[in-house]
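Following up on my earlier message about 6-phosphogluconic acid. Here are the inputs again, as you asked, copied directly from the submission form:
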Amino acid sequence: MIRRYKGLEELSDAAADEFSRLVHDATATRGSCSVALAGGSTPRRLYEILATPARKGKVQWDRIDFFWGDERAVPADHPGSNFRMAKQALLDELAIRADHIHRIEAEREDRDVAALDYQREIARVLRAPSGGKPPAFDLVLLGMGADGHTASLFPNTEVLGERERWVVGLHVPGLDTERVTMTAPILNAARHLLFMVSGADKASALAAVLEGPHDPMRLPAQLIRPISGASTWFVDEAAAAKLTMRPLP
Ligand code: 6PG
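Thanks, got it. Here's what our run produced:
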């Protein structure tokens, strides 16, 4: 499903409603909720809105385990850290228990070991045997780059073909940088995938991903389709400008 909004503010406000609804349903059904947060800049406004006094009292924060879909190879206090962004915009405002915050240690020298350790942490918290079938996150938040990447699944990288590991470390040639990312198998196992895409610079990629030929090596966001869950795209008018189908208002 594609839901269209005027701008980032309206998109983020609607995404906050959906976040709260999904967390409520998960905690009512299973007593807990596992969320993988998105990085980059788009989700910051969502996190800030969720942390406002008007909203923060409406979510059972102590039932949520927070993970990240990907992380840059930087320390936790680095300006480019996805963890730092979510910590500042959301988690610090809510006094979340430290044992419910599961940071990817992507700054470690051996990123393959860091990725394996993160997979083990996911397995422990979501009560699934590590190395077996990927467990289902209740909610995965994702952004999309102007090149059609999502998480750290970048075009023409080997990680796109990963079918076993849930988390991998990788070098991103296009950015000449290192990352740790969740892979398609675990992202697609999610109960709910919530994409947030804002801005004119995303319009071409969004139209190609949603309406163009299936070409996931070139457009990795096309790899991310829920196996049995649901996927919702929250997009603003600028990002939706090149879509032919009219998303739901
Ligand atoms: C990251 C994210 C990445 C992001 C897109 C969109 O680490 O940067 O995981 O996938 O969601 O690049 O980024 P913006 O929201 O900043 O446009």
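One observation from looking it over: Residues 38-42, 70, 82, 143-145, 149-152 surround 6-phosphogluconic acid (CB under 6 Å). Hope that helps, and feel free to reply on this thread.
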